[in-house]
């Protein structure tokens, strides 16, 4: 690993918070935009020339920025432009779902170089998942004619809240059977590079904020309606993490105290109504066999009354829960991600109807939008996690 890459991953991360926070903000800003002049950066970020110069120098020393000379106009000096340095190394993003793993290799400027996905028949535990991810990345690197020496770090998205400090899953129930102890230590046993770990919904929101629908808003709620039901709160372009790192768990808001048991160990969580397994179970009570997710999507596309009814009931419940969050956080928008949102985009209108019905008039401005990023959102957010040294 080159000295620049070591500096990029370790030196920046070791800086005091007063430098690390603005450095992260500048990298996020450049990741979502074409090369910028210093004047453009000062205007966009609201920084003084002194502050910008200090942070740019730090990132240049870390090998994370590159400066492109601009064209000369008249007698003035050419105006150079700054961008993230794609030659600073490669980054791995890993999204570990309930029954699939998605891996991405990207350059430091966030351009995607390779991607792979592997489905599993059943839910998998942490060691099996991490080893499978290692094998997938090995194969992608071999296809590119390179190896782990080029990797500056790996970000790992997990479908559970991660407790700050212990790096352990912060929910009980079946999740703690699959994910045990310090997940960063477990990752170090399988991946030969610095690793960072985060909640998949939060990292998906991070990806939308950098490259997707979230670019248009300072504050938004992100809902991931998938096998699990997750969320994230973004206020003033910062993701709210909470005191222990578990903020945004809308899937475990109680919507029925007498409802079904949830995988977290509690009863009546939103996920037991709106998670994909819950929807498939509901439809299985009507049809002679339980449909697969692919079959269920086909039923939705065909307008099957039972499938549509189950999904619309779920979106109504999600809408009521979301309305409460909107009244608390007063965001600009609600952004929808996950397989269920993509399979039934009409659900966005159902959520919007509930916001109008249950929110204060001061929140009538809140938009409901589909996310711009597809199923790669978690892995792309994991790439961003590495490039901001775990600060998401």
Overall description:
This protein is α/β, with parallel strands linked by helices and 392 residues long. It has three domains: 85 residues, Winged helix-like DNA-binding domain superfamily/Winged helix DNA-binding domain (Arc Repressor Mutant, subunit A, Orthogonal Bundle); 127 residues, Nucleotidyltransferase, domain 5, CATH 3.30.420; 156 residues, Nucleotidyltransferase, domain 5 (2-Layer Sandwich). The chain has 15 helices and twelve strands. Strands 5-4-3-6-7 form a five-stranded mixed β-sheet, with helices on both faces. A five-stranded mixed β-sheet has the order 10-9-8-11-12, with helices on both faces. Helix 12 packs across helix 14. It is globular and about 75 Å long. The N terminus is likely disordered.
């Amino acid at each position: 690993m080159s000295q620049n890459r070591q500096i990029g991953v370790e030196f920046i991360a070791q800086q005091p918070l007063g430098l690390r926070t603005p450095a992260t903000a500048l990298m996020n800003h450049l990741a979502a935009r074409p090369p910028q002049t210093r004047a453009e950066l000062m205007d966009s970020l609201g920084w003084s020339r002194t502050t910008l110069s200090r942070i740019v120098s730090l990132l240049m020393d870390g090998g994370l920025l590159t400066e492109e000379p601009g064209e000369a106009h008249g007698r003035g000096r050419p105006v150079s432009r700054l961008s993230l340095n794609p030659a600073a190394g490669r980054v791995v993003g890993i999204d570990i779902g309930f029954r699939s793993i998605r891996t991405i290799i990207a350059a430091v400027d966030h351009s995607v170089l390779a991607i792979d996905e592997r489905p599993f028949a059943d839910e998998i535990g942490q060691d099996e998942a991490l080893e499978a991810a290692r094998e997938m990345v090995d194969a992608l690197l071999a296809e590119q004619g390179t190896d782990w020496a080029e990797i500056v770090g790996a970000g790992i998205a997990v479908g559970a809240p991660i407790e700050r400090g212990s790096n352990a899953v912060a929910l009980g129930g079946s999740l703690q059977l699959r994910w045990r102890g310090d997940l960063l230590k477990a990752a170090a046993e399988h991946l030969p590079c610095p690793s960072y770990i985060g909640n998949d919904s939060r990292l998906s929101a991070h990806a939308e904020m950098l490259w997707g629908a979230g670019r248009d808003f300072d504050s938004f709620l992100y809902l991931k309606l998938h096998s699990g039901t997750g969320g994230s709160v973004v206020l003033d372009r910062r993701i709210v993490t909470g005191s222990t790192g578990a903020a945004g768990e809308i899937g475990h808001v109680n919507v029925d105290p007498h409802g079904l048991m949830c995988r977290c160990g509690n009863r009546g969580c939103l996920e037991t109504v709106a998670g994909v397994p819950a929807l498939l179970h509901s439809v299985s009570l009507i049809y002679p066999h339980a449909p697969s997710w692919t079959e269920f999507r086909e039923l939705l596309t065909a307008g099957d009354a039972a499938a549509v009814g189950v999904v619309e009931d779920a979106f109504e419940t999600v809408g009521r829960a979301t309305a409460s969050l909107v009244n608390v956080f007063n965001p600009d928008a609600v952004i929808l991600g996950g397989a269920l949102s993509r399979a039934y985009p009409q659900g966005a209108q159902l959520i919007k109807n509930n916001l109008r019905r249950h929110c204060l008039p001061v929140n009538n401005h809140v938009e409901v939008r589909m996310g711009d990023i597809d199923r790669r959102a978690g892995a792309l957010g994991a790439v961003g996690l590495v490039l901001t040294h775990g600060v998401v």
